[in-house]
Write a structure and sequence with these properties.
The longest helix has 13 residues, at 7-19. A two-stranded antiparallel sheet has the order 1-2. It is α+β, with helices and mostly antiparallel strands. The termini are far apart. It has a domain at 22-78: Classic Zinc Finger (Double Stranded RNA Binding Domain). The chain has helices at residues 7-19, 37-48, 65-76, 93-103, 121-128; strands at 25-26, 33-34, 53-54, 61-62, 82-84, 88-90, 109-110, 117-118.
């Protein structure tokens, strides 16, 4: 049976994976929550040490395919670099886009608490922790929050 592409299902999937705060998948090792099983699977490799992406040129193995791709570009000159103003090289187009956004001062990610703007969703998520009532991280040397 052929799956029919539906723009509405694609949009729903996008909204669920990108914009939803729902995180039904939890790590059995540390309890961290994830939006999808794919993100969880990648995370679990931190705990298990699994490196399922081997380099075909040397003995190095990687936890993620994008790490292997970057290794192939840097170490074995395999693949295509994406360049920006000659000096910068990027192995992935989304990293190039983020870099260009920074130069153009485009900050599409806005904090709902204080209206501060950020270039990337990751920067916004990191910032949002300042609005939480509890401290997430404790210093390993002095135990201060």
């Amino acid at each position: 049976m052929t799956k029919v592409f539906s723009p509405s299902s694609s949009l729903q999937r996008h909204n669920h994976h990108v914009h939803s705060n729902r995180r039904p998948c939890h790590c059995p090792y540390c309890g961290m929550l994830f939006k999808t099983n794919i993100y969880l699977k990648c995370h679990v490799r931190i705990h298990t040490g699994a490196t399922p992406y081997p380099c075909r040129h040397c003995s190095e193995c990687f936890t993620r395919p994008n790490k292997l791709k970057t290794h192939l570009l840097k170490s074995h000159n395999e693949g295509t670099w994406l360049t920006y103003h000659i000096r910068q090289k990027f192995s992935r187009s989304d990293n190039l886009k983020k870099h260009v956004r920074r130069h153009e001062s485009v900050k599409p990610y806005v904090c709902s608490e204080c209206a501060k703007c950020f270039c990337t969703a990751a920067e916004l998520r990191l910032h949002q922790s300042v609005h939480l009532d509890y401290k997430q991280f404790r210093c390993g040397l002095c135990s201060r929050w």
